[in-house]
């Protein structure tokens, strides 16, 4: 039995206090800069089969946090996310398998397909009568595909910010107690 098969059909919401939506980019090609988004909503509708299941998410881009306020402010400008005109990033799945999550990622008005490697971590009842499920999802994208093109050449021949960005999601889902009781 797979982890997915142990999830009762229904709508699961993401627990924001036990979920992280993060990214990693190279800085000057010698170090990594990690960041997270602090404000987001997401739902997973679990169907009778994987083909009937859907993941949707919306991330508030103003909530970007790299632990450096100057960098975060720059990321919010038109050089990167342009939050004044495009305040959110969205994802809607188009296919879910036991090991991958494929869907449409929209940033700055541009929608591109992405496929995440998916790892289910388990399902457990919680002390409040609900059900929790966890998974991790990772992928690597080229930020230029979403018109995130700003960069600076550095003296050593590289660039200030890598084109390739790793996205990583550590997610805890919650089924409300009433849905858990019906399972």
If you had to describe this structure to a student in words, what would you say it looks like?
The chain has 183 residues and is mainly β. The chain has a single domain, classed as Lipocalin. Helix content is 8%, strand content 52%. It contains two helices and eleven strands. It has an eight-stranded antiparallel β-barrel. A hairpin with a 2-residue loop joins strand 8 and strand 9. The radius of gyration is 18 Å and the shape is elongated. The C terminus is likely disordered.
Beta fraction of the residues? over 45%
Order of helices and strands: EEEEEEHEEEEEH
State the major sheet: 8 strands, antiparallel, barrel
Shape: elongated
The separation of the N and C termini measures: 16 Å
Rg of Cα set:
18 Å
Q: What is the CATH C level class, in words?
A: Mainly Beta
In total, how many beta strands? 11
CATH superfamily: Lipid/polyisoprenoid-binding, YceI-like
Indicate the CATH topology. Lipocalin
Give the structural class.
Answer: mainly beta
**How many helical elements?**
2
Strand order of the largest sheet: 1-4-5-7-8-9-10-11
Mean pLDDT: 90
Question: Which stretches are poorly predicted, pLDDT < 50 over at least 5 residues?
Answer: 179-183
Question: What level of helicity do the residues show?
Answer: under 10%
Please give the domain count.
1
Summarize the helices and strands and which ones pair or pack.
Blueprint: E1 10-14, E2 20-27, E3 31-37, E4 40-46, E5 54-60, E6 64-65, H1 69-76, E7 88-96, E8 100-107, E9 110-125, E10 131-142, E11 161-175, H2 177-182
Antiparallel strand pairs: 1-4, 1-11, 2-3, 2-11, 3-6, 4-5, 5-7, 7-8, 8-9, 9-10, 10-11
Domain Lipid/polyisoprenoid-binding YceI-like: 11-174
Family: Belongs to the UPF0312 family.
Protein name: YceI family protein
